[in-house]
Task: inverse folding
């Protein structure tokens, strides 16, 4: 039985698409955004997270020196991130909230990491969900193989598609990936008739400059898209970097003020877009 | 209402400005009457005492008042009832003002009166004396050990919803004539005599207000107030015999009857019922008579303030179980009507909105929802919940009505259910349900069972069977204790006035306490199901499946309250699944035991010919009931609280979010707990942001309804809670903060971000 590496299943998600949703987070990502709020999502491997605040120092004065296994750790201060699951196990888990999908028009969203990294498994999973009549969506960076995305989109009601940095050179420098691939995939999806909703992370000094915003607008207008989600930068994921043994470079970056967010929101509105701040 | 009217502001300030005092006025009048009525039957003496109070108690009309009548002239006074028990009052006479919960001030003069006049008179004659003399050793042992708690052994019974149907459609004079008529052929019936005495004194009580209104009108220099007082005089005079027509008349009559019922028994939870149904004709009449809607709203706000004036004086122990002196002016809105159609109307909305203008603990508003509830009403409910006061609570017709059918209630009556006190289900105007007569501590049952059988239990099934045997044994004692208390109220504290407002007491010629009502339940609450599921699951896994530890070793650890065993305790908390996370294997353990408890309870009848029916709720009783239980295998320390509510997961143990909590609760057989059950769910305010947030919240409520759970109440997480979580992270591991596209465990965020969230919560994020 094929398995996927999943790092979280979040029920009652209400800010990420239609209705009440369950988000399945696939582990592994081909990009490295410096503002990533789920650093534990990047590697495809199982990892140990060390949560200082939960540690009762039963075996070590410092959790980062602790030699115990997560299985031993009595408070789950040491915890495995990443759980191998089969399609059937995942279906069983997400169907637990079926009654709420029905009452709200919600469903299941596959997120990451990057779901395309485990694309074949995800297609199997989505097929099964569709056969049960579940509303499906993915949240994707779009950074992956078109054929997989193409197949996957046959079983999707909606694609929430990140648009971050439009300049290919700068994209490569900051995020370590191929910006052109993403744009091509976006266009192909739209041309195929898939419902694509762009999500734009508003990261001060990275994505919020005039040029970038204008390029996004131009790109979307060309593709006849008139709805966007704006996702303001936050620091909620910052403490996780240390937990997972990674370095976080944006510690000092201040989240934007409401005014700054509204300024960008207004630009989109003035161009005729429907804008949702948050999901 | 954007700006509170001056009237409401002044009345609200008046209500809250003084410290709460004890008033002995009722006790004195009651005792004086009893000194005169020696030799008469108990029910006549009660009626004469009530009449003596109604005819002599000090009354006042305060500036700006549109609804008249207070129990005491000083707002929010606690009323002592030495006829129920003079003992605890004497014991606590000097500590009532310093106790931790629900403080009252006792003046020096009153202390003297109590000690020299009231106590000596009631010593040996109170309800409590009777109850104590009848309790068997076994019942006493069940109480002392901490499995059974019997309520109302030293206070009024209450927990009832009177009907206003007859007085509203015919007037007080009709009720008086009816009882006189009945007396012609039943001259010997003391209940009917008693009813007549109290009804006639109710009439006099109203006329006293009419008279006072005239007196004040003559002295009043302000023209507008003078007109108001003249109108109040007319209203009081009219409703003292005729049926009401306008909303103002109906509200005033409603309130006078409620005050009189308070004087009669000084009891908790003489509740209000389906206010949007029985007040609707009067509201519509007033509107069609050209009364402005805003004036109707002002009248309702005045009544809501009045409901906060009645506070209940409880003993220090009782105040722990029922903190915040809940008086139980519980109003139920919406739901289906007797024909099964949606009953929501304009008044349902207005009541929610005027509650939002006042935002005090009373009235305690609940709404009934069902498959056909209008979306607009559900949105209004969500908006009101967003205010963050926990009001309204939500009840589910889709499970409560079928539950009643299973108890032999007619479909029409079942569809007309309402709520008594906190969450107790009742059929208004037809039920004397003793809804709060006893609590049964299921977690203590497990402890007692383990203490007794730790050496000889060899399998999990055997443990479950022994627990069931203990339940069976102690349910019997609980029933005995409840029936003794039930009988005591019939003998010593009948309530003839109240009985005139419950069908079919007058027709049967019998007080509610002696079986006059149509429905005669006794409601007993099984508590601790969440901790029990969690503990038994740990035992199942660790002892019987994984064999990590023997039962007697575990017992030893628990017996020593996890002393030097913090690692084991943390493992029990964190390494085993818990109730509230939608995991069948855990949830079904508690479900089976709660069902067993329900089935045992159902076997018994009470002395009024009714059946015992189970419920599962605590008000604040999860704290004292927790104090009675030693450490448990779910990682709970000795004396630590139980899970709150009744059906809620243990605090900090539900980690899969609010839908999985509902799923776990839905695995209990919620058709059986017909006395009522209680579920608290925590939400962070951001979840209800904007129209979209409200809509999804409504969808959540619809899911709740379809899962056939009886009740839900929302705690919108406050900044205070977040601050506490910041200090005690291990206690709040379940606290999820949801923002756009992301959710985080609050305690795992760093301090600066936590502070930011606290800050935004304080300012309505």
Result:
């Amino acid at each position: 039985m094929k398995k996927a590496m999943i790092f979280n299943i979040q029920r009652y998600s209400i800010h990420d698409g239609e209705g009440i949703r369950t988000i399945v987070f696939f582990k592994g990502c081909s990009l490295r955004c410096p503002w990533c709020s789920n650093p534990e999502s990047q590697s495809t491997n199982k990892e140990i997270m060390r949560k200082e605040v939960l540690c009762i120092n039963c075996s070590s004065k410092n959790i980062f020196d602790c030699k115990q296994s997560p299985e031993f750790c009595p408070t789950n201060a040491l915890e495995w991130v990443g759980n191998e699951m089969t399609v059937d196990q995942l279906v069983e888990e997400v169907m637990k909230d079926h009654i709420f999908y029905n009452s709200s028009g919600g469903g299941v969203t596959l997120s990451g990491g990057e779901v395309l990294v485990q694309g074949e498994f995800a297609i199997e999973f989505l097929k099964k969900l569709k056969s049960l009549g579940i509303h499906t969506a993915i949240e994707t960076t779009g950074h992956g193989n078109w054929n997989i995305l193409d197949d996957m989109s046959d079983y999707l009601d909606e694609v929430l598609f990140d648009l971050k940095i439009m300049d290919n050179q700068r994209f490569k420098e900051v995020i370590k990936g191929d910006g052109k691939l993403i744009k091509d995939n976006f266009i192909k999806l739209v041309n195929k008739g898939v419902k694509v909703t762009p999500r734009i992370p508003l990261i001060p000094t990275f994505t919020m400059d005039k040029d970038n915003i204008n390029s996004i607008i131009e790109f979307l207008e060309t593709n006849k898209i008139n709805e966007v989600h704006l996702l303001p930068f936050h620091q909620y994921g910052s403490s996780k970097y240390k937990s997972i043994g990674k370095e976080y470079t944006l510690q000092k970056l201040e989240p934007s003020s409401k005014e700054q967010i509204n300024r960008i929101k207004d630009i989109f509105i003035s161009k005729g877009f429907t804008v949702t701040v948050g999901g | 209402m954007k700006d509170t009217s001056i009237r409401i502001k002044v009345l609200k300030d008046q209500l809250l400005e003084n410290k709460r005092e004890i008033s002995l006025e009722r006790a004195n009048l009651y005792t004086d009457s009893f000194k005169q009525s020696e030799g008469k039957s108990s029910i006549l003496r009660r009626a004469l005492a009530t009449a003596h109070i109604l005819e002599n108690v000090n009354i006042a009309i305060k500036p700006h008042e549109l609804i008249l009548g207070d129990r005491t002239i000083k707002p929010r006074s606690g009323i002592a009832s030495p006829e129920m028990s003079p003992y605890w009052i004497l014991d606590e006479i000097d500590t009532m003002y310093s106790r931790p919960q629900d403080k009252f001030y006792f003046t020096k003069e009153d202390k003297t009166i109590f000690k020299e006049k009231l106590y000596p008179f009631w010593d040996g004659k109170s309800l409590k004396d009777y109850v104590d003399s009848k309790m068997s050793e076994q019942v006493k042992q069940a109480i002392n050990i901490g499995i059974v708690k019997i309520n109302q052994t030293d206070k009024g019974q209450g927990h009832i919803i009177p009907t206003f149907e007859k007085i509203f459609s015919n007037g007080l004079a009709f009720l008086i004539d009816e009882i006189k008529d009945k007396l012609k052929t039943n001259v010997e019936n003391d209940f009917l005599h008693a009813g007549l005495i109290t009804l006639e004194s109710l009439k006099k009580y109203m006329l006293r207000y009419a008279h006072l209104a005239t007196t004040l009108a003559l002295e009043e220099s302000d023209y507008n107030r003078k007109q108001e007082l003249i109108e109040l005089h007319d209203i009081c005079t009219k409703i003292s015999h005729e049926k009401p027509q306008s909303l103002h008349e109906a509200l005033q009559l409603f309130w006078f009857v409620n005050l009189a019922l308070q004087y009669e028994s000084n009891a908790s939870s003489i509740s209000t019922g389906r206010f949007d149904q029985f007040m609707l004709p009067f509201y519509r009449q007033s509107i069609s008579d050209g009364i402005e809607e805003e004036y109707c709203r002002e009248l309702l706000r005045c009544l809501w303030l009045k409901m906060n004036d009645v506070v209940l004086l409880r003993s220090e122990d009782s105040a722990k179980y029922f903190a915040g002196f809940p008086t139980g002016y519980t109003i139920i809105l919406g739901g289906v009507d007797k024909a099964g159609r949606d009953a929501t109307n304009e008044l349902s909305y207005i009541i929610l909105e005027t509650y939002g203008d006042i935002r005090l603990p009373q009235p305690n508003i609940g709404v009934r929802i069902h498959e056909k509830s209008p979306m607009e009403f559900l949105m209004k409910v969500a908006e009101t919940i967003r205010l963050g006061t926990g009001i309204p609570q939500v009840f589910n017709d889709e499970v409560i009505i079928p539950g009643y059918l299973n108890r032999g209630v007619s479909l029409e009556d079942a569809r007309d259910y309402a709520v008594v006190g906190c969450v107790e289900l009742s059929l208004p105007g037809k039920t004397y349900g003793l809804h709060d007569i006893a609590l049964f501590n299921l977690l203590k049952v497990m402890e007692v069972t383990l203490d007794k059988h730790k050496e000889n239990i060899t399998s999990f099934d055997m443990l479950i069977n022994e627990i069931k045997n203990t339940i069976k044994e102690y349910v019997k004692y609980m029933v005995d204790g409840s029936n003794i208390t039930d009988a005591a109220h019939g003998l010593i504290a009948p309530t003839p006035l109240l009985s005139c407002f419950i069908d079919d007491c007058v027709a049967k010629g019998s007080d509610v306490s002696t079986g006059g009502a149509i429905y005669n339940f006794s409601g007993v609450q099984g508590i601790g199901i969440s901790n029990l599921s969690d503990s038994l699951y740990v035992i199942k896994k660790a002892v019987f499946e994984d064999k990590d530890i023997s039962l007697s070793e575990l017992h030893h650890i628990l017996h020593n309250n996890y002393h030097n065993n913090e690692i084991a305790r943390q493992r029990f908390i964190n390494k085993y699944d818990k109730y509230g996370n939608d995991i069948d294997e855990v949830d079904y353990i508690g479900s089976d035991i709660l069902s067993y408890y329900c089935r045992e309870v159902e076997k018994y009848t009470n002395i009024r010919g009714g059946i015992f029916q189970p419920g599962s709720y605590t008000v604040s009783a999860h704290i004292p009931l927790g104090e009675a239980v030693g450490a448990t295998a779910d990682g709970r320390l000795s004396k630590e609280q139980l899970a709150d509510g009744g059906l809620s997961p243990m605090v900090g143990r539900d980690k899969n979010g609010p839908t999985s909590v509902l799923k776990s609760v839905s695995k209990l057989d919620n058709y059986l707990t017909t006395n009522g059950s209680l579920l608290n769910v925590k939400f962070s305010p951001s979840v209800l942001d904007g129209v979209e947030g409200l809509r999804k919240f409504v969808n959540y409520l619809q899911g709740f309804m379809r899962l056939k759970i009886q009740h839900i109440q929302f705690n919108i997480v406050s900044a205070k809670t977040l601050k506490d979580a910041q200090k005690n992270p291990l206690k709040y591991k379940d606290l999820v903060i949801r923002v756009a596209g992301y959710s985080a465990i609050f305690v795992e965020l760093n301090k600066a971000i936590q502070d930011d969230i606290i800050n935004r919560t304080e300012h309505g994020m």
Observations:
- Chain B has 33 helices and 15 strands.
